[in-house]
Specification:
mainly alpha; two-stranded antiparallel sheet; extended
Length: 87
């Protein structure tokens, strides 16, 4: 009886994904996706290679405002204008 219980428990543990392993795999996939997207956008000249200095320059020109670790447009109409532009 004990052997069956132990085998049953072992089977359950083997079928349960390790959260640390799946978390690392997820973050690895996210990291690869992030840098792949940045590479493609930079390669097609849709995004500057040095993004942070570009965003800080936009802050200096008062197009953007820095909020915490992100950036927002100063005015909604300005955001909508850039969103409607053809690339």
């Amino acid at each position: 009886m004990r052997r069956k219980k132990r085998e049953s428990m072992q089977a359950t543990l083997n079928s349960t994904p390790d959260p640390r392993r799946s978390s690392c795999a997820t973050w690895g996939a996210v990291l690869i996706q992030h840098y792949s997207l940045r590479f493609v956008l930079t390669r097609n000249e849709l995004l500057p290679q040095r993004l942070i200095p570009f965003l800080e320059y936009a802050v200096d020109l008062i197009f953007l405002r820095r909020v915490g670790g992100s950036y927002i447009f100063v005015h909604r109409l300005l955001m909508e204008h850039f969103a409607e532009m053809e690339v």
